[in-house]
Fold these 3 entries.
Entry 1:
Amino acid sequence: MNISAVIITDNWDEKMKRCVKSVEWCGELIIIEDKHVESRIKNYELSLPAQAGIKNNNVGIYQRDLNNDFGKQRNYGLEKAKGDWVLFVDSDEEVSRELRKEITTKPQISECVGFYFKRQDCFMGRWLKHGEVGEMKLLRLAKKNAGRWRGCVHETWDIKGPTAVLENPLHHYPHPTITEFLEKINCYTDIVAQSWKEEGRKIHGWEIILYPLGKFLQNYLWKLGFLDSFPGLVMAVMMSFHSFLARSKYWIINSTVGRSLHSPD
C-alpha cells in the first residue's frame, strides 16, 4: 500500500512526537497545523524527518487557519496527500504496532476502499474498556479519492464503497488533566452550538437537562462505564457535561438572536 499519513495538530508536544513516530512506516507524512496557534514548527522542520524515519522530500508541513472547522482542515490534508491511500491520525493518537502490522498485511485490503479502527483511550492512567469510548470505531484509512470529510467537529469521512473494521487498536491519549479536558469541551461545544444554529436545528428546553442525564446513565450504567473505576465515572460525567454545555450554548445563542430581532431600534 502506498500510504500518506496526515496529522492535524495545534500543539507540538511529546504526544505529537509519539504520534509522528508511530507513522514512520508510511510513504509520506503530511502535517497540517492551525496557523493561529503559537508555533514551534521551525524547531521541528529540520529534525522531524530524521525522527520519523521518513525521507525529507516526503514530509510536508503546512499552516492553515482552522477557523473552527476540522472537516475542512482534514480535506485540506487529503488534497495535499500524494498516496493512493490516506491515513488520518490526530496528534494525541498513536498507531499501535499491532495495528500497523494489520494494515500492512491485511489480506482483503484490495476488496475495500476504507477501514475503521477501534480506538482505545488511556485516561487518568487507565485503558478504558467500557462506556461510549470503549466501543469507539473511527474511519481513518481509505483510498484518497473515496470521499470527503463532513462536519465542523466530530467530523466523519463520507466515503463510497465497501469497508471493514480492523481488529487492533488505535491508541488515544486524551486530556492529561481535568483542566485540559474542560478546555477542550468548552472549545468543541462552541463549534457544535454554532453549527447547529447554521443548520437550523431545533432544541427543546427539556433536552438541556434530560439528554445529558440520559447520556450519563447510558455511559456509566448501560454501557458499564462503572467497570472502569473512577476514570470511568469521570469520563461519563464529562461526556454528559459536553451534551449539557452544547445544548445550553445553543439555547443561549437562539435566545440572544430572538431578543435582538424583536428589540426596538
Entry 2:
Amino acid sequence: MATIPTPEAGLVIAYSYLWRREHQAGQDEGLKDRPSVIVLAVERLEDGATIVTVLPITHTAPLKPGAAVELLAPVKRHLGLDDQRSWVVVEEGNEFIWPGYDLRKVPRKNRYDYGFLPPRLFDQIRNAFLALHPTGRTLTPRD
C-alpha cells in the first residue's frame, strides 16, 4: 500500500489538475492526471488542515513569455518523466485541502509522488508564480 507523502514545497505529485478554463466552463474534475508541483503548503490555524497549491506540468509550450518554466532533460530523468519537452505553468494553479480527492498514484508505481525538484529550479518556479499571483486570488479551488 502506497503511503501518502507529506506535502512539501518542490515535491512533484501525480494529480488530476483542473485547468482554469475547465473550471470556468463548469467542470469540477480534471480531464487528465498529470505531474504537478507543490508550490505552497500551509497549515490552517483554525482546524489544522493543510492547504496546498499546485502548478501543472504540461507538454504544451507557453503562448506568453513568463507563463511557464521549462523543465530540462536531466530534471525530467531525475523525476522519471518522459523525454518530451515540458513546462511548469506558473500563470495558474489549483488549491486544495491535502490530500484531497484528486491525488493520484504515479503510473506504474506504488507511490503518489515523483520526487523533488532541485532547489534552485524550484526557487525560480516559485518566484515566477509569486510575481504573477501576489495575492493568490487567481487559484482554482478544488474542495
Entry 3:
Amino acid sequence: MTGLQRERVADGVEVVRLDRPERRNAMDTQTLDELLAALEELAADADLRTVVFSTTSTRALCAGADVAEELDREGGIARMERFARMYQAVTDLPVPTVAVCVGNVVGAGAELAAACDLRVAGENVKLAWAGAKLGVPVGPARLVPLVGLSRAKDLIYSGRPVGAEEAGRIGLAERVVPTEEAEAAAIALATELASRPGDGMRRLKTMFRDLEDLAGRTARENVTLLDWQRYGQGLPQGGMRGR
C-alpha cells in the first residue's frame, strides 16, 4: 500500500501528496522510502519547474514520525537516516517548492514545510515544532531563516502550535486561505512561478540556498540529529524493541 500520490498538474508543476489519512500522514519507513525515491526522480527532471507538497486529507499535511511503527534499535537509526536524507533532498531540490499547510503540520511535517521555499496555509492549520518535548535536536536549521532567532527559539523550545493568523503574521505562510482552497491556491502559486524562465528560477533557487547556506545548515543539523538517534535516547521512545 502506497503512502504517496504524485500528479503532474501542469507543464513542469508536480504535486506530491502524502496519503496516509488514517495516520494523519505520519511518516513510517515505507513512506519515507517512497518520498525519497520521488525526490531523487524529481531532482533529475530537466522539465520540472515547481513542486507542491500536499496531502489527500485536510486533517493534516503531516503529523510527524509514525510513533506506532514498531522498530528495533537498528530500525530506529535507519528510519532517522531516511528523515535526514529527506530533509536534505527537499532543501536541495533545484526548483521552487510550495507546501500546503493544513491541519496538523507537526514535527517532521513542520520540518518539511519549513524546508520548502513558500507555504500556503489553510485556516485550520496547526504548525508545531514538537521535537523539544522528546529532546529531539531538530528545527533551528530551517526555522531560524524564516522567522528569526528569537521567534524560532520560542516555537522550538515551547513546541506550541501556531495557527493560521500567526503563521501569516510572522512569515511562516505567504498565503492564508480557507482550508478547502489551500491546495488549489498552492498550485496556482506554483503554476505562476512555473511561467517564469526555467533557467532563471533554478539559478535564483541556487542563489537563495547558497547565500543563506541552507544546505550546509541542514547537513550540520542532520549530523546532530543522527548522533542523538545512534547514541542518545532516539525515537520512538518507549516503543523500541531490543534496545
